Amino acid sequence: LPRTRARAGTRPDARPRAGTIARVASSFRALRLAFATHRASASAGATRASFPPSRRARIFPGVRANRRALVAAMSTSDAPDDVFLEDLRSERSMEWVKAENERALAAIAGPTGKPEDDPMFAKLRAIYDDKRKIPNVRLRGDFVYNFWQDEHHVKGIWRRTTMDDFKTPEPTWETVLDVDALAALEGKSWVWKGPQFLDYGPGPNRDRVDRCVVNLSDGGTDACTVREFDVVAKAFVDGPDAFVLPPGKNSFCWVDRDVAWIGHDFGDGTMSPSGYPLTVREWRRGQPLEDAVEIWRGEPGDVVASGSAYWDKGHRYKVWYRAKTFYDTVRFVPHPDRPNEMVHVDIPTDFSFATFANHVVIHCKSEWTVGGGKGGEGGTKFIAGSVVAHPASAFFRGERSDFTVLYSPADDRCAYEGSSETKDYLMVHALEHMVTRVYVWRFDDATRTFSLVKEHAAENCQSFSAGGVDSERSNELFVTTEGFLDPTTLSTATAPDLDVSTPLKTNTAWFDASGMSVELREATSDDGTKVPYFLVRGQAQGGSNPTPAPTVLYGYGGFEIPMSPGYSATVGECFLTKGVCYALACIRGGGEFGAQWHRAAKKEKRWRAYEDFAAVAKDLVATGVTTHATLGCMGGSNGGLLTGAMMTHYPHLFGAVVSQCPLLDMERYVLLTSGPSWIDEYGDPSIPEERDALLGFSPYHNLEKSVDVAVEERGFDESAARRGEHIPATLFTTSTADDRVHPSHARRVVHKMRALGIGGKVLYHEMTEGGHAGAADNVARAKVKTIENRFLVDALKKNEA
């Protein structure tokens, strides 16, 4: 799967992930990353080993029985009056949304109520449509493929060129599929979700690249239709023999040209409570979809079940999965000597499992002892965070005698971040004390052994990644570097020499970084834990004696996703050039320091993430960077829950809050869209002690308490608190088409605040398309970011004055 890192405001002007591939052969990891990177730009393609995140627009019949059982199991009170807002597109709901949108736009965009009239919109539109931005490419056969959007291609075009031509300053691109034209022809608001190519594997067709399936979403939801496409003819494959799946949270994996493994809603018992497929069916070309033969099934309570068939350097793998929870996956493979017999991959369920050539590669999330006697005596012990390799066939037979340790963290501030590869090299990426380091291992095909040949460390406060251009056939690399003030540079190199590279393309430097500075800092949380954060001082704030300035603090803190430095033209233009500082918090719940950093804020420990974020906010004020009145915070998805918690539990620390596509009702979240899949992250409201913990931080359930705390602990006048004067200026943004985190979370919090009389400083805006990404094209992206950033800048500048 593409190696993905969520960073502050993952954005359309983010660096390309060209060629960085981690063979984490699990559809569920893809699903986790998809949840985390809710504002990521579309990738150019998928690896042949991947199973895409399942997609679903609504609760289909196969989900309803499981959903009813879950509802019955929950000991909840009667549904609140505002639950009507869960009816996504009802007349009553949309009338409420329309009124709130008008209120928000009038307050933010001024008399015209049009963000498009704001000079910020024009600047952001130019950034997103920039012809010079580095295309995110993926090599397939003789061509590199790229998906591109600009002012002429609003919905986008899928295009290609040769590798040699891509290396020139002005490549000549050939359009493969025009999504704008397709949408107009078919009367759909198609949003590109990426292709999956057929890999023929070794043999006479080794270099043949002619078929893929493309995933298209109507309006940007996770639910997609899957359609077979001929890249030679540059046309969809028509007729009864074509592979086509109706819209849904489908999964699709090529087995060969005429066979696919699919996950789809086939009725009761085939979809999980989370809305993802529970069965894998083998579908043969020309066979009616309903006649596809079931070959794998998960348990009713699983989150998802899937299968993956792929080639890895000439070696064939077939793997079946059951994701019991978000972090616990059971895997099965064919026995090496008895291919019709499935064997369990005997590793702890929370470990990551991947392959490289004829080896398995395992990431140990906790200490692991293999072999030895009773209790592991005399066995081989690997510390938590280790990455080990073992010959695959021997491992599947049960042997455990030939491990190679590819990574072992030096301390609890070092963590494995993923891997990438070329023909002969495996590159292990680690984050060590917030510095990226890459360990390059050479694989000797003759002896089937690994040897460490190089190490490379990124510059301070910079991000660095390297991945193979064609990992099956060459050792050529794409290398990307960037920093908060340094635009992304794409270079080429040859493994193992990552440090000897030739710059190929550089993104536009959209803002003058003169007088700006970057530093890595630490705050101390309530329990004494040191929490790192990056501080970027804006113009006029980078000198030796800066005065307090408006500052925006971004955070995420969930799903083991790390925050790392990245160039954002949006942040530069909207904040830094306006004298607004920018901070990025690396709080517990994330993946900056591995699984233990993540587990420290799971479930009943979720408060630690909020204490960490609050500690960073306090440190920014204590060190003179800003004041509480001029400090704003922003976060999306799980980060929207984070900033919603700041508004509710820590309102005194902030002058403004933006919460994007958030979870906010932590009792009903399991009843909506993909909510049940996140129980292992947040907790289960049907279990009394876990419900108590959830209601303890749930923003929706603590609005009344925030009034009492403001009066009793913060010294607010009671009448002022009951008018919501203790609440900072707050903006919630979401999308009607978000079928991952239901927009009713934000709708109902705002509705309740209005009913309580404490919503006077709260605004709400909802886009009608875009899904969990919030926007589906560059025009919509510029509009959303103008609304959010104008709100923050004006609120903080007003407080400064």
Descriptive keywords:
single chain; 801 residues; alpha+beta; eight-stranded mixed β-sheet; five-stranded antiparallel β-sheet; 17 helices; 39 strands; globular; disordered N terminus
Summed over residues and divided by their number, the pLDDT gives a mean of: 90
Low-confidence stretches: 1-68
Distance between the termini: 49 Å
For the largest beta-sheet, the strand count, sense and barrel status come to: 8 strands, mixed
How many helices in DSSP terms? Answer: 17
Rounded radius of gyration (Å): 25 Å
Task: Tell me the total number of β-strands.
Answer: 39
Which percent bin holds the helix content? 10-25%
Shape: globular
Beta-strand content bin:
25-35%
**SS class:** alpha+beta
Cross-sheet strand order for the largest sheet: 32-33-35-34-36-37-38-39
Description:
The longest helix has 23 residues, at 778-800. By secondary structure, the chain is α+β, with helices and mostly antiparallel strands. An 8-stranded mixed beta sheet has the order 32-33-35-34-36-37-38-39, sandwiched between helices. The radius of gyration is 25 Å and the shape is globular. A hairpin with a 5-residue loop joins β15 (315-323) and β16. It has 17 helices and 39 strands. α4 (119-128) packs across α17 (778-800).
